[in-house]
Amino acid sequence: MTKKTYLHLDSPVQYIKGVGPKRATYFGKIGVETVHDLMRLVPRRYVDYSTVMKIRDVRINDEATVIGRIEIIEARRTRKRVHLVTSLLRDTTGSIVLKWFNRPDLRKKFKVGDSLLVSGKVTFYRSQQLINPLYEIIGEEETEQKKQGEVIPIYPLTEGLSIWDVRRAARIALDACLNEIRETLPQSLIDKHGLLQLRQATRHLHFPDDLKAAQAARRRLVYDEFFFFELTLARRKAKLQERTGIAFQETGTLTRQFIQKLPFTMTQGQATAMREIAADMQRERPMNRLLQGDVGSGKTVVSLYAILIAIENDYQAVLMAPTEILAEQHYLVLQELLSGIGIKPYLLTGSIKGKDRGLIADDISKGKAKLVLGTHALIEEDLTFDKLGLVVVDEQHRFGVMQRAALVGKGANPDFLVLSATPIPRTLALTLYGDLDISIIKEKPPKRGEVITKIVNDKEKPSTFAFIRNILSQGHQAFVICPIIEKSETTDLRSVQEVTEEITEAFPDFSVGIIHGRLSTADRMQIMNDYRLGKIAVLVATTVVEVGVDIPNATIMIIEHPERFGLAQLHQLRGRIGRGAQRSYCFLVLSRYLQSDTYERIEFFSKNSDGFALAQMDIKLRGPGQVLGKRQHGLPDINIGDLEFDRDLLYSARDDAFGLVKEDPDLSLPENHAARVELEHLAHRAELLRIG
Ligand code: ADP
Ligand code: MG
Question: pTM of the prediction?
Fold first, then answer.
């Protein structure tokens, strides 16, 4: 007797005929656990088989797509020491040479016998060849499979799975369970955007009649993803707005004095942001605002204005920073800025312990500490406030949403302000900070010197040092950034230790200081203070100085191993110079033996000073997760949609979701029932992922 298994949407993929436990683990690697996941697995792209050419028919200068089997694969270095992977690809009609430069990884990726789909422009050098073609490893092709359609989805794959495995499983899953799929969107939205029904979209996703059908299917699923993401945000925002917060008065007792004593006038952008923030604070609902501005645009002063509004209303304020050194910097700077108006900031970080911490915590809970600066240490449960009215978080993308909630929870619906120097594209802002209102400072304070960025190699160091020596003699200061603190056996990276020796030798007439995360708070503050006062001329540091450090007299920065840093991070580092009126110089020390794409990335950085362009490129190269850090808990993921490519769909989905919540906050209308069920399902899933 054969045992019959019934497949459901929730069945593990292992029960699909032909999959089994071993293949199921491969499916798991591409995020497919259940039949439902498989149905929602969106192909990376599609190949129209009618456009695939026989190798025999390929001509020079054609843009050709061919499929064949790898007959030979080899790797070597050219005379110019460039990595070259060469392969011979054969189909039933002939063979063609494939060449990839600077992709040594491909040597291991491809095996003789693999079926490869490649496309590129045909050139000739001894024989016909494709240089750096796009490729897909498609595994064993089965003729029977091909008959199923001309347009073949290329799925995200992992070793052990071929697109044919996925395709076969998808066919069985669709046949068994397509009817179980329930529509998730209100019909009105489906009509409005001319979307496919979910069931239809699911079928076309895997077995489209043509490319157009495949695109329509993807469009529907991308819309769904964006829509439910934004719906989550819209509901979160609606809930926040229901709360009663503090209606602050701009009394002027502190704010007016502060503005009068400032040694500069606010830029237009700062003034506008200040007005927006002040207006928010006067309202009775809690403020939830993001203040975005490139490094050096002057966000600190603006946030200080907000802080003073809170304090002049007899509330407490906190400013939380992502690193101890940044909190310490804020402390030094604010101490000075606020000394004239009699406000004494407190500092509380993880390094402050025991009796010291006890005294500070006491002043905080009694309300004596009006302004508290610090790090994650501020979140600790036993720390209580007397009357917390404003929470400012600097560079929040490093904090999770949970931490945000924990800090805000220390007050009774305090106002909340996030400062971010990561100039994220609007699309990303809508997703990442979609439940916040946004103020943007576009311009920088006037009279900033330009920053000249130059790539140098080891050989050019003596002349670079001579140049720097000259600038140091004029009384300016320099940063030297290294990726690691100490020399280690396992890497060739130059360390703070090693570089300090080199610098001390190269600049015998100047004092050299060292700073990194392993020093104590007291030592770090001492060193930064000495540097601020000019007692230290050259400061060798790790990336602890990445954000917030503000020394206008520092006009030189040397970055060792810039290839180790992301573009956004390099931009932050470089933002430490060019803060005064003089011209500044940033030197990127790059080894001569690097992959060309690394060189291109660093070169892009050296030619671009626009934080926005750099962030966008960084996100493109490394993905939003890498650039922006922490995954935002409690939100569905964006996996299918591409924030740039699908931008218009994102904007629509956002408007639709926010519109829907405005009309029907609890999604209780019958036409929104499906959306509500889906939202609950997604929330449940997110929760499971969080726990699991
Ligand atoms: P951000 O935090 O946005 O990177 P900061 O708030 O640290 O920038 O400001 C950078 C520097 O510019 C500080 O030295 C600050 O005192 C100065 N600054 C801020 N606003 C102005 C202004 N309107 N005019 C001149 N200098 C300013
Ligand atoms: Mg700042």
Answer: 0.69
